[in-house]
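Dear V.,

Thank you for sending over the compound details. I've combined the ligand you provided, flavin mononucleotide, with the protein sequence from our construct and run the structure prediction for the complex. I'm sharing the raw inputs here so there's no ambiguity about protonation or stereochemistry in the SMILES, which I know was a concern on your side last time.
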Amino acid sequence: MFTDKQLFAAPLAGITDKPFRRLIRSFSPKSPILTEMISCHSLVEGHKNCLRNFDRYEDEGLIGAQIFGASPTLMAESAKILQDLGAKWIDINMGCPVPKVATKAGAGAFLMQDHKLACKIMGQVVKAVNIPVSIKTRLGWDEKSKNWQDLVKIAVDCGISFVTLHGRTRAQLYNGPAQMPEKPDLPIPIIANGDIKTSSDIEKVQNLGYDGAMIGRALFGKPWLIGCLLGSCKEPDNIGELVLKHLNYAIEYYGEKTAVPMFRKHAAWYSAGLPNSAGFRIKVNQINNANDLKMAICEFWGCELD
Ligand SMILES: Cc1cc2nc3c(=O)[nH]c(=O)nc-3n(C[C@H](O)[C@H](O)[C@H](O)COP(=O)(O)O)c2cc1C
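Below is the predicted structure of the protein with flavin mononucleotide bound, written out as structure tokens.
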């Protein structure tokens, strides 16, 4: 899975869904992409809609499924289900800071505090599948407990193939600049994550010794970014056409009633920084049908309706 200058697309719940991943993939055919996190409970219990987070289109390529939960048995079972559905690797979420996951469910970032449980989960998941298993974690719970290296050492013993390290603590959530420490001598690849947006950000983490980089929020409104950073494409000339394509994928997938309000955030990100974007956002937020949304997009970017 590791080539020179490997760039991963981060899991982003509510954003890196099938329509958005399809666009990312169209610009970067080979880069690894992670799905939005999937609850092991929901998956094993067969909850409606849960499998949507791992709904692939044909030829999606190098796609990994991210799971979260606190039960080693259910985590192992869900990893197996996702392997059978075509995941190329399994990623275990050990960094999600939201209270519903990290405190109430004892999953995500909580596992940075309970290495015994983390070890059981990693061991059982690795045993359950024959594809690589990675973990995605943070520096530690808070400033006083930056214990990620201890967790990585346990991960190595459990047979984990690589680790993604988000350069913030759980207490920091997504605030303040990410700070990547120099990569210590560790026997598995470590992927750097947090505030990586440009070639020079990538160069910085490479110089710190990291084996690759994972890009998250910089993809908002820029599905081409990884492709551009890899040199396999340039920023599209006609963003309006791309926005329409994304909207059409979303309507095809979710249906108009769900897709139109869901698309407002994407419309805001695509238009950010352009002249009159504030007016465009206000307009889009009041639109409830696909045709009006398409017309607003065409008017804003000056493109033709297909
Ligand atoms: C809206 C949103 C959803 C996220 N969803 C997930 C997720 O499902 N799983 C996960 O491991 N991290 C998730 N993250 C964290 C990102 O993957 C990433 O670690 C974080 O945003 C830092 O990287 P960045 O600065 O490049 O965005 C999410 C972050 C945001 C902002």
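A first observation: The mean pLDDT is 94.

Warm regards,
I. M.
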